[in-house]
Amino acid sequence: MTNTLHRYSEHYAREPGEDASPVTDDYIVFAMASKGVNDDDLAAKYRAFLKLALEHDPVNIGDATHGGWLRPQRKLTPVNHWRRERRPDPETVLRGVDGPTTVAAVFDTYEKLRAFVLALAKADIGVSINIAAPMDAAQRCCRDVGLARHSVEYSVGFRGRVERLPEARTLELSTMCGHGMVSAAFARKMLDWVRENRRTPAEAAAYMARFCSCGVFNTRRAERLLEAARPGADRPAAGQGDRPGGSDSDPTAVR
Amino acid sequence: MGAIAVSPAINRAVVDADACVECFTCHRGMSKEHLNPTFVRAVRGLARLARFRFDPEPDVCPTDAIVPEELAWPRIVRRAFSDPQVPHESTGIHGRGTAEVKTNDVTGRVGTGEAGFVVEFGRPGIGARFRDIERMTTSLAALHVAFEPMNPVTTLMTDVARGTIRPDILGEKVLSAIVEIKVPFDRVPEVLACVRDVARRLDTVVAVGVSTRCHPDGSEPLRALLEREGYPAYRGKTNLGLGRVTVAGAGAPGKAAAAARPW
Known about the structure:
- The complex is a heterodimer of chains A (255) and B (263).
- Chain A is an alpha+beta fold and 255 residues long.
- In chain A, 33% of the residues lie in helices and 15% in strands.
- In chain A, a hairpin with a 3-residue loop joins strand 3 (60-63) and strand 4.
């Protein structure tokens, strides 16, 4: 489940530039157990993780087998087209944890990340805990909390037929569900709908989040990206509208 | 994948079975209204006649029209690699079925002086056929790398030493699949060069991750190496080392690696 490793930002653009803005609103912490090693009383351990996360104001939480706190609704009436429920439902996530899976929480500030990791270290739940984020932020967090990193995994970008990838802004949205459940076509459609003022960024972000089956879609970052896509919006220009591919000495690279 | 489109011949949505990767997103991700299909078509037809455009919720299927099919071999492979809510039988892990270094603190899977690679095909959103994956695995096998035995793609190999994959699934298309290998740390540039070279000849995209075990003080040599080689080292995963053995008799990290099956 490399579902959080390759979240696209302008740092992976062909020419990110010296001033590629750091991503400062997207920090994921997830827990993962190993069978026969630390999977005893697993549902309780995962619930403890999620309850701790809820104390630190996450933008999403989820369980990889059941979904995040925004989920598809199975029995709607036509009224939903005018009065749709968009409130997160953390209780359903907590209730749904029932065994082998991974659980995750997404935060939109470094301060929340640090506070949550500190709480996790004190709680000593026993399962493996990982941060998926810009590496500098994760390293800083470990230093601040007094932890030495155990292992690291770097995303080194996309290769191959990168000309088949969508444009950068779409990719930023769709890769926030690393499992690929938020299709690029749907993300593009949501960008268009926001530009056409047919939906608000918050509504469009919620639509996409419901497709993410593990709850790592960052609705706050999605809202920011959607808002920035409106005509005339103040936004960093790098990466916007550019196709990640290009032509240089290695035409198959997106970096 | 672009597998669903409205056929002008029958005026109904149809699924292109060859393009579909069986991710089940259309069935699971859509909210549903369970309205009468004849009624829905009539309303849409009237609106179309009057050149009205209804502006419905985009993630709602009004009729719950999509029904999952029972899949048989080899097509069932598509679902195992595309639907993150189906655990891989080989590893028991949901999603892409890999543990990488996410549980390295209790499994000791990637040790000091080693590097782990996750080479993911078809991501993001393009899809990949096993034919392309085999092109990469045979090239990597020629470098005499160690394929991770607890990995769904490895379990589908007919000859791990040569990196060949079962011939009956080579035409199957999946949303993404991950090959995991482990090499001594000093071979990282060689493997990266191989992946870069082979990726040029594939009909899909490849996303690459490289991992290593940190020193006791939390430092690690991988970032400097990647930057030296011209690769981005901006984003990634950091295992905090908070995992511990809690099952009686499971043993210490390293020992546990032989027996542990991460979820």
